[in-house]
Amino acid sequence: MPEIIRKGAVVQDDWLVVRPAAEQPVNELPPGRIIVPLATWLAHAEALLARGSVGVWLAGTDDPAQIAPWLERLSLVAVDFPKFTDGRGFSIAYLLRSRFGWRGELRAIGDVLPDQVFYMQRVGFDAFAVRSDRSVATALRALKTFSDAYQGSWDNAVPAFRRADRPWPESLGQGSLKARQQA
Q: Which domains does the chain have, with CATH numbers?
């Protein structure tokens, strides 16, 4: 079984990402835990749910609102990165977490490189299927590349300048910036 990063640890991946032909019947899909593309899911949602553990993967061109009605019944959601330069998956992940309230496993699949995982984590990914020619151990270390981030995002909505406790300029009176912000 291939290895992935899930919730900050390297684990064996028992899910199979399925990339079926458009006309492939749902009963010809492989047995076990599978992750199907959105189009397959939309065409066969009830039959796939009857199978048991099933996930859906979204392409960069897919609208995450299309799976919103089923999110409570899905085991995981994956976002496919067809090439490392395609950043649309970052927006999809952020929308799934912030707008649609997805709290389950959110996995990055496809052309996932170690130098991207820190930023993927910031927008909501908690599982990473790193490209097969790259080291999963290197990607795991990359999750800790930075100890803090300036910008607010899914993992911490408050930007660094709002978290800082620094002196307030004397010309503006007593206190600190943090104390003034909390007032």
A: 3-147 (3.20.20.70)
